[in-house]
Amino acid sequence: MNKQSAAVGVLALAAGLVILLGKLGVFAFIGTVFWPLLILIPGILLHVLYFGRMLPAITLVPAGILTVVAVLLVIGNWFGWHSMKYLWPFFILSVGVGLYEYYVFGPDRSKSLWTLSLALIAVSVLLFFMTLLWSWGAYLLAVILIAVGAWMVLKRPRFR
């Protein structure tokens, strides 16, 4: 057997394997489950390239945004997209994280950049808790009323 026919045989084997895996749904499953990695990998790569001193510090802004957004998409993909009704404020957090990374590691230590990044992070956390309170507010109110009522019953003044 010559080298050319061996190469053609390997190509035929690879093509058959790809077709078989495609028909069995392996590629569809991988694409369905792991597509957020297409966003996570560039975010991590930008971090690695900055810390490897190959890119300037400003690349940390999109790196932070991509990484946080990819984590949110992984959570939504794995645990159901209904969780996004609670997690949407973390998209705002991603911008705050990117700006904060640039503030910490970049050459510009301006107070306004620090203030803006922390304000975005604080607004994001506040909106997250407001979303939880809005969604679970009735349950929280019920638990508070039960606790206050139990405290009033158990700690009432005792008359002799």
Automatic annotation (TrEMBL):
Keyword Membrane assigned: yes
UniProt signal peptide: none
Chain ranges passing through the membrane: 7-27, 33-51, 58-80, 86-105, 112-130, 136-154
Top-level taxon of origin: Bacteria
Keywords: Membrane, Transmembrane, Transmembrane helix
Keyword Zinc-finger: no
Protein name: DUF5668 domain-containing protein
